[in-house]
């Protein structure tokens, strides 16, 4: 054997055989590529984000937590939900009950339905309820105007119509302007409690959450 060949065998490392490719996927087969995708915020999202951040920056917010007995409301809903669907084409939920209770409370405590403008407190004779509803783009807060003039059926119909518009992405920024009080129903997501952000220039927000069966002493 030539001397050069012997030298090459000593100096050049022997390459180990490559393992056969396995058809079974392994952890190492997952792509290590890390991708960031930037999607511009639409006008609606920009407006909502700016207002919520402004609310955090300029308002001194306080959250209180209370439990209520929903037995009577649940009984009324179960009693009339078929009637509402048959005669009015509306699915009766709990939001109309929350709105109706809020209207009575705001009439009793008009300061909660007011706003602060510079050094003045501005009282309103009307009640415009902002209701948080889900949409393909996230949570939006359209306004039901002059709720103090509505009955339960009209309230439920208004909620249903706004929810349908939100589902179809047909809400405009104008639909979410001018509310005097907001109701957010985190119970639809299974939430037990939260600290919702005030929708400025409003003075308060009501956060409703999960309804649970509990023994009563």
From TrEMBL:
Known pathway: Amino-acid degradation; L-lysine degradation via saccharopine pathway; glutaryl-CoA from L-lysine: step 6/6
Its Gene Ontology biological processes? tricarboxylic acid cycle
The catalytic activity of this protein is classed by the Enzyme Commission as: 2.3.1.61
Keywords, in A-Z order = Acyltransferase, Lipoyl, Transferase, Tricarboxylic acid cycle
Pfam families in alphabetical order: 2-oxoacid_dh
Task: Please give an example of a GO cellular component term from this record.
Answer: mitochondrion
Q: Where is the 2-oxoacid dehydrogenase acyltransferase catalytic domain?
A: 35-216
Any one Gene Ontology MF annotation carried by this entry is: dihydrolipoyllysine-residue succinyltransferase activity
Where does the source fall among the domains of life? Eukaryota
Which cofactors is this protein said to need?
A: (R)-lipoate
Report the function annotation for this chain.
Dihydrolipoamide succinyltransferase (E2) component of the 2-oxoglutarate dehydrogenase complex. The 2-oxoglutarate dehydrogenase complex catalyzes the overall conversion of 2-oxoglutarate to succinyl-CoA and CO(2). The 2-oxoglutarate dehydrogenase complex is mainly active in the mitochondrion. A fraction of the 2-oxoglutarate dehydrogenase complex also localizes in the nucleus and is required for lysine succinylation of histones: associates with KAT2A on chromatin and provides succinyl-CoA to histone succinyltransferase KAT2A.
Q: What's the name of the protein?
A: Dihydrolipoyllysine-residue succinyltransferase component of 2-oxoglutarate dehydrogenase complex, mitochondrial
């Amino acid at each position: 054997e030539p001397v050069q060949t012997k030298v090459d065998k000593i100096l050049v490392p022997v390459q180990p055989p490559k393992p056969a490719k396995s058809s079974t996927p392994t952890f190492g087969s997952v792509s290590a590529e890390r991708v960031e995708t930037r999607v511009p915020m639409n006008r609606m999202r920009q407006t909502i984000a700016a207002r919520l951040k402004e609310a955090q920056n300029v308002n001194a917010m306080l959250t209180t937590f209370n439990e209520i007995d929903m037995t009577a409301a649940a009984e009324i809903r179960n009693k009339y939900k078929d009637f509402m669907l048959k005669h009015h084409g509306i699915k009766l939920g709990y939001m109309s009950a929350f709105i109706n209770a809020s209207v009575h409370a705001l009439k009793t405590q008009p300061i909660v339905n007011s706003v602060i403008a510079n050094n003045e407190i501005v009282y309103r004779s009307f009640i415009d309820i902002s209701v948080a509803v889900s949409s393909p783009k996230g949570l939006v807060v359209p306004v039901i105007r002059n709720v103090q003039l509505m009955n339960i059926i009209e309230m439920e119909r208004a909620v249903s119509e706004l929810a349908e518009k939100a589902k179809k992405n047909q809400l405009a920024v104008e639909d979410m302007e001018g509310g005097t009080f907001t109701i957010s129903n985190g119970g639809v997501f299974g939430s037990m409690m939260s600290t919702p952000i005030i929708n400025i220039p409003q003075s308060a927000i009501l956060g409703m959450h999960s309804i649970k069966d509990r023994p009563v002493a």
